[in-house]
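Hey, I'm writing a tutorial for new members on how sequence and structure tokens pair up, and I'd like a real worked example in the thread rather than a made-up one. If someone can provide the structure for the chain below, I'll link this post from the tutorial.
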Amino acid sequence: MRLIDTVAWVCVEDGRILGTRSRGRTLFYIPGGKRETGESDLETLVREVREEVGVELLVDTVEPAGVYEAEADGHGADAVVRMACYTARHRGVLRAGGEIEEVAWLTYADRDRTAPVDRAVFDDLRDAGLLA
């Protein structure tokens, strides 16, 4: 089994979660990504969010929101993604950046339009009454 270790920013507002879709992809992903050599979760999270959606996370507000594992979308049957999720407040205006083609606010009805690991996050948010 091949493990893909990632971090993600769970940004929920008004019963919707922020999602991103990369160029050439059909599924949405919670913003985040893989760490570069030597990066901590926090450093990776701040960098990836800035690159993907153009906002700055307020680092003193970052809180763990769970760790999820599932089949890695598009990486073969032997690949599993582990996604450490965090919440945080931010400043700036959300916009698609880098490899991101689309930024969208998703509800639970959009669950099947997301990567397998994100679906577990959607389930937990719905169960907690945070996702419409």
